[in-house]
Amino acid sequence: MLKVLFSSRMLAFHALVILAVPSFIWLGFWQLDRWETRSAQVNLQQDNVAAEAVPVEDLTSVGTDVASDDRWRTVEATGTWDTDNEVLLRNRDGSQGVGFHVLTPLVTDEGPALLVNRGWIERGEDAHDTPEPPAVPDGEVTVQGRLHYSENEDNTGLSNRDDLPEGQIMIVDVDELDERLPYDVYGGYAELTDQDPVPEHPPERVPLHEEDSGMSASYAVQWWVFAAVAVVGWIVLMRREVRDAREQEAAGGDGGEPGPGPADGTGGPDDGPSDSGADTPRAQATVE
């Protein structure tokens, strides 16, 4: 049995199983951890979206970014729109395809401005065209919006470029925009959900991108099933190898050479007539 189980072929299979099974188990726990993280994000989003609106200064301030636990909270601010410093966010999805999001500073009564994503508009003839955004109401307005932290290369994979047409940017990098503007800005930005008064032709509202826990939990179970299958297959193969070796050994023992005759050397009953018998016809003829 040991000779069979420690043959070169079986040693290679043992090594494969020893490497694969712990790896499958680790991948299962990794997927489970991803599922728990995503589920926590789902719960956080649902709770924050359902929470009551609060003044923007309660959750963010000048020179700071929005805390991850405050993302998606609804904030409220009152002020006037500054369309002179309005910019367009490129490559944003809407109901009619890829277009722009309109990012407009709302200069609040308290002094700092809140960057507000007013919504989606269609692009022009090509990507270099800068379409005219819809007009905003004159005078003081009160807005509500979902709060988001500043965008950067780490959390978007994108960065602003210097070769873009005037008035277009790639991401809402609050620190970079703060350097361009003639006033201070709150950390983060808001996706508009409501405003008073409502403009006649507002941009298309940005829908809530709902977080999803994904398939990580099922993937974790799949990896653990793979580990179990590998172990069961390993056991089945070892048992089969031992069984086949025993059957071959048994077959070799039964198929040996014929055994010797009786001890007096005269042969068995099926040996036929013996040349040494004196009473045979041939022997009698010789005597005569």
Automatic annotation (TrEMBL):
It comes from the Bacteria. It is a multi-pass membrane protein. InterPro entries: Surf1/Shy1, Surf1/Surf4. CDD domains: SURF1 (cd06662). Its main location: membrane. Keywords: Cell membrane, Membrane, Transmembrane, Transmembrane helix. Residues 190-211, 245-288 are annotated as: Disordered. Pfam families: SURF1 (PF02104). PROSITE patterns: SURF1. Residues 252-270 have a biased composition (Gly residues). The chain crosses the membrane at residues 12-32, 219-237. It is found in: Cell membrane; Membrane. Residues 198-211 have a biased composition (Basic and acidic residues). Belongs to the SURF1 family. This is SURF1-like protein. It comes from Nocardiopsis coralli.
